[in-house]
Amino acid sequence: MKLHNFSAGPCVLPKEVILKASEALLDFDNGLSLIEISHRSKAFVDVMEKARSLALELLGLEGKGYKALFLQGGASMQFLQVALNLLEKRAGYLNTGTWSDKAIKEAKLYDDIYEVASSKDAGYNYIPKGYDIPSDYDYFHCTSNNTIFGTQMKQFPKCDIPMVCDMSSDIFSRTLDFSQFDLIYAGAQKNMGPAGTTLVIVKEDILGKVSRKIPSMMDYKIHIGKSSMFNTPPVFAVYTSMLTMEWLKNLGGIKAIEEENEKKARLMYSEIDLNPLFKGYAAKDDRSYMNATFTLLNEDLKETFDTMCKEAGINGINGHRSVGGYRASMYNALSLDSVKALVEIMSELESKA
Ligand SMILES: *Cc1c(COP(=O)(O)O)cnc(C)c1O
Known about the structure:
By secondary structure, the protein is of the alpha/beta class. The protein is 35% helix and 17% strand. The chain has helices spanning 15-26, 42-59, 74-86, 98-107, 220-225, 235-251, 253-274, 302-311, 336-352; strands at residues 4-5, 66-71, 90-95, 112-118, 140-143, 145-146, 151-152, 163-166, 183-187, 198-203, 278-280, 291-296, 314-315, 326-329.
């Protein structure tokens, strides 16, 4: 049976990427495994450099003063690493969900944080708009896609200060002017690779402006100086991320995958809207093209629906424990056929009910 993997993260990856990654575990460099060679060997240094340059190339940020790093500690470590490197007096944060909230909590350990706006009042089901970002703050932080609540920023504010964005769950999924951001970070396991590495893309000229002492492992400048090899990098996660980026480049880059992602999202949301058994969670204008959140209105049908999904090979659509209901994550490597399979089950349920 074909399995349809709607997991929110770690998530579905292209089959060919998983095959190549597993081959490299057995034989990567003259019979030696990827995970048993020196990370200083030419074979691995080439992987790291390829991964770093592909990330900038896909986002259209080559030659614009940015550096790409593959770090560890997850996006969660970026919540504090961003503050350590950039926060001198005060920063503005947009609170659009659990992950933004966690970023705010960590940054508050270092200095003053001002929430420019929050959608907490409505269970984070929308993206606040029309807020001001004071121009004397150190930076503005936002989360482009709210993985748990299924909302996504379609527009980003004009910002006179450095803009930092957590793009963990929609990096490489849609075209944007990425040069409007000064720092982008993304845990690999949502749309790029396996867990274990975090992509950080930073404009070099925003660094070196805080007066605090930064521990070496937390200092972006040190990682840049060492070409993302300050310490042993997570070789398997970096290699697999590189393969996914190559796969995306061969498909035609972000523009090509964006078209696919739009098709998937349109199909998914039209079923949610037209089927009277289901109701979408997020405000329509702010719906995420990556994570569709919805509820089944009649709880009595839950068991039947869950069984039908299971029989059709549909995996990973249970909602996050803080929201409940369902969440269909449609990351880059999920095929349109998988969305068709889920939508079919939803309409079959309607005809049964
Ligand atoms: C999953 C997620 C995180 C946390 O990522 P970790 O790598 O597990 O620390 C942060 N932000 C967003 C938007 C996420 O989806």
